[in-house]
Design brief:
Elements: H1 2-18, H2 27-39, H3 50-55, H4 58-64, H5 71-84, H6 93-96, H7 99-115, H8 118-128, H9 134-153, H10 157-164, H11 167-175, H12 182-194, H13 199-207, H14 210-219, H15 229-245, H16 249-257, H17 260-268, H18 273-286, H19 292-300, H20 313-329, H21 335-377, H22 382-387, H23 389-398, H24 401-417, H25 419-431, H26 436-443, H27 447-457, H28 466-478, H29 484-487
Helix pairs in contact: 1-2, 2-5, 5-9, 9-12, 11-12, 12-15, 14-15, 15-18, 17-18, 18-20, 19-21, 20-24, 21-23, 21-24, 21-25, 24-25, 24-26, 24-27
Length: 488
């Protein structure tokens, strides 16, 4: 097969040079070449033989076709590389028996492709292919598929792809187009994948105007929903990319300057998919010291009630994190902090009622999972208990432990801030047969969370106020029945 493939390439090149002024005389050789490229697709059934392609020197021949004068041949080559590098290759029942060979074969092929400048050739073709032509449009879709395959096989390639080629500028330009199409959706997915881990990639994208571009792309959905699942996935990718970028302190400032807070607040007022994800974005934008500017901006806005209450667990998790970020970043001298505390006092402490209700709800879930885990532990030896320790904890997180811990942090922090809130919370907890010690016990379960709580107590400049100290003493008195270590 490889021999026929090489002969077809050589014959086509020879006839193209000999009859450069008369395409009709090399069309037959082009059709033969097209057929031989397609025949190589059968190699996807035998990835353990990929090293033979490398040994026979055909990788450079294959990549030479990415510069062929005929776009149809270029697209054939793109399709072949896409299929050969698909992560699902080698997962058939027969192939699973020699899965290690298949994995090694795939690695050998990918290494050879990369050494022969695959990435650079792919990016060149992004500029060459014309999406106004159906075949070229499909070619770009398959080309983006190669990038996805490579990142799935080796996530560390993200740095090389993003920083050593011009893919990022192309992706940014592509997602700026209006409406939805499959290539715009795929571009958003590749962008989201590239931004997942590396700080230098996020900063490069921000230098290219990535924050503004993503906010503009999202603004189209501030008052309308995507029309189908594929478009919804594209919007999700935009949000994920923005959240990844907001992990960087520098990007939080750019988000503030681009009026990202204002856009997210507009989304919060609508009954759209974007409303749900806007909460997550605000959570990322407000965290850390670099999020103070966004906290001040959010605190200065008059929030209107949305048409629909938040009911999703993920929403509640992000909302709790946003409240904690506001309390960390707003000092006691900030008007925005006073307004935040006031919201929990208004309407006869209605929101404190909701906090205690959430604590009870998530604690009940956690207790159910804990009971299941304890039952399973009875039949396990010490080795198994150690092996499944992380899995047990993940099950608790899936049931809402993380949100429960944040809810308790908010209750405790607000109780320290205001005596009225503390008294209301203690009264509601007592009604449920509990007390403030149940809140501190959940907080203290994780050392990191305990440190977070101490930080919250000392957020005001110059240390805790007399009122704060009085409230802390009250919490300790209410928890007197617990061991000193828990009460501390």
């Amino acid at each position: 097969m490889i021999l026929k493939f090489e002969k077809a390439i050589n014959k086509n090149q020879e006839q193209r040079m000999r009859y450069a002024d008369d395409p009709t005389k090399f069309m037959e050789s082009e059709a033969d070449l097209d057929e031989e490229i397609k025949n190589l697709l059968s190699l996807t059934q035998a990835p353990h033989l990929y090293p033979e392609i490398v040994k026979l020197g055909s990788v450079s021949s294959l990549l030479s076709l990415l510069s062929h004068e005929n776009n149809d041949i270029v697209i054939d080559a793109i399709d072949l590389i896409n299929e050969l590098t698909d992560e699902d290759v080698g997962t058939s029942e027969d192939e699973l028996e020699r899965n290690q060979e298949a994995t090694q074969g795939m690695k050998a092929l990918v290494d050879a492709l990369l050494k022969n400048e695959l990435l650079e050739l792919l990016v060149q073709n992004l500029g060459r292919l014309d999406e106004n032509e159906e075949a070229d449009r499909q070619g770009i879709f398959k080309l983006l598929g190669i990038f996805e395959n490579l990142l799935a096989l080796d996530p560390s390639l993200a740095e090389r792809i993003a920083l050593k080629t011009d893919l990022l500028p192309w992706l940014l330009k592509r997602i700026q187009t209006k409406g939805f199409d499959s290539n715009r959706g795929y571009a958003s997915e590749i962008l989201s994948i590239l931004l997942q881990e590396r700080r230098d990639i996020r900063l490069k994208l921000s230098d290219l105007g990535g924050v503004d571009t993503l906010l503009r792309a999202l603004s189209a959905y501030k008052r309308k929903d995507p029309q189908d699942e594929d478009e919804a996935e594209m919007v999700e990718n935009f949000f994920n990319a923005l959240c990844s970028m907001l992990n960087e302190p520098e990007v939080k400032q750019l988000f503030l300057e681009a009026e990202g807070v204002e856009l997210m607040l507009i989304m919060l007022r609508e009954r759209t998919l974007a409303r749900i994800r806007a909460v997550k974005v605000l959570n990322y934008a407000l965290t850390g010291e670099a999020g103070r500017g966004n906290c001040l901006r959010l605190g200065a806005k008059k929030l209107k009630k949305s048409h629909k209450e938040y009911v999703e667990s993920e929403d509640e998790e992000h909302i709790m994190c946003i409240i904690l970020s506001l309390m960390r970043n707003l000092s006691q001298d900030d008007l925005q902090r006073i307004r935040l505390i006031r919201k929990f006092i208004d309407d006869d402490y209605e929101k404190v009622d909701r906090l205690v209700e959430m604590k009870e709800q998530y604690e009940a879930r956690d207790q159910r999972v804990l009971a299941e885990i304890e039952e399973e532990k009875k039949d396990m030896d010490e080795e198994e208990l150690e092996e499944f320790g992380d899995e047990f904890y993940i099950r608790r997180l899936d049931a809402g432990l993380f949100t429960l811990q944040r809810v308790c942090l908010v209750i405790a922090a607000l109780s320290i801030e205001d005596v009225g809130i503390r008294d209301k919370a203690m009264m509601l907890l007592k009604r449920m047969g509990s007390d403030m010690s149940s809140v501190t016990r959940i907080i203290e379960e994780e050392t990191a969370l305990l440190q977070d709580f101490v930080y919250l107590k000392n957020v005001a400049t110059g240390g805790a106020t007399a009122a704060t100290q009085s409230t802390e003493a009250s919490i300790k008195m209410d928890s007197a029945s617990n061991p000193p270590q828990e009460t501390q």
